[in-house]
Structures are given as structure tokens and as C-alpha cells.
Amino acid sequence: MIAAVGRPKSTLSNEERYERHKQDMAARSRQKSASGRDIGELPPVRDPELRASCESDLRLFLETCFPAAFRLGWCDDHLVLISELQRVIEQGGLRAIGMPRGTGKSTIVMRAIISRDSTSIRLNASASLGKPFQVGA
Fold first, then answer.
1. What are the φ and ψ backbone dihedral angles of 128, each rounded to 5 degrees?
2. What is the full DSSP assignment across 88-120?
3. HSE of 119 in the Cβ direction (CA atoms, 13 Å)?
4. What is the pLDDT of the chain when averaged over all its residues?
């Protein structure tokens, strides 16, 4: 008779092999995800004075860095949203603000996130469902 050549037969049960497989796939997925998020070193700031001004003034940041997105000007509701976002960014906390569809809520909030170090901001994805967004350390 001819002996089988190759790997020795596993002593693990099917459940144990499956559990090991799940753990290996989860580790591989985490590594792949992390490598996809690594964008490298950020370039040096070109205008430190402008950056410092924009860090303390969300409205200035939005108007200066995204003029095409905010070309129509602000209504009172926008100014309240910007003011509340600025407060929550600086002090932390929760705040729910409702506005009609298509008024720029997501555009403003997403750019507010860009204005800060992403590790210091948490945005509750359910904010668009009328639940509070949370920004802060």
C-alpha cells in the first residue's frame, strides 16, 4: 500500500478548526483594513496662521476651505448648527439639531470632522436619523 504524503492529519475537531479559521480570517481582515487606512505622513501646513484661525472658527474654516460647497451663504439655521458644532467640538457633549433634507447638514458636519484630528472626534452615524451626534474626546 502507498502511504499518503503531505501534512499530518489534524487532531483538531471540526469546531476547533472552524474557530481557528475564523480567528485567522478576522486577523487578516483587521490587518488589511488597517493597511488601507494608512495614508502616510501629512504634509507640512502651508499657512500656520490660517490654520490657527480656522481651528477656533468653524465658519471661517468652512468658508475658506470649501467655498464651492458653501457658495449660497448661510441661513439662521446654518449659523445655529455651525455654532453648536463649534461648541461641541471644543467642549464635548451631545446636541441634536433637526433641519430639512437638502439643507447641507451632512456637508457641514462632515467638513467639521475634517477640520479636526479624526482621533479626537466621534460622530454618531445615527445623527441623520434625528438622534444626537457626538463630537469630542
1. -70, -10
2. HHHH--EE-----TTSSHHHHHHHHHHTS-GGG
3. 1
4. 79
Reduce the DSSP state of residue 54 to 3 states and report it: helix
Which helix (H) or strand (E) segment holds residue 13: the answer is: none
Sign for the CA dihedral angle at 64, 67, 73, 76 comes to negative
At residue 110, the 3 state secondary structure works out as helix
Alpha carbon 137 to its chain's center: 13
Q: CA dihedral in degrees (100, 69, 113, 29; nearest 10)? A: 100
The amino acid at residue 66 is F
Which neighbouring-strand residues pair with 95?
133
> Going by C-beta distance under 8 Å and a sequence separation of 6 or more, which residues neighbour residue 74?
59, 82
DSSP classification of residue 133: E
pLDDT per position as a tens digit, 57-112: 999 999 998 899 988 889 999 999 999 999 988 888 888 888 888 888 889 988 88
pLDDT in tens, 1-11: 565 566 667 78
Taking each helix axis from N to C end, the angle separating 48-55 and 58-65, rounded to the nearest 10 degrees, works out to 130
What is the residue whose three cell numbers read 504524503? 5
C-alpha cell at 94: 451631545
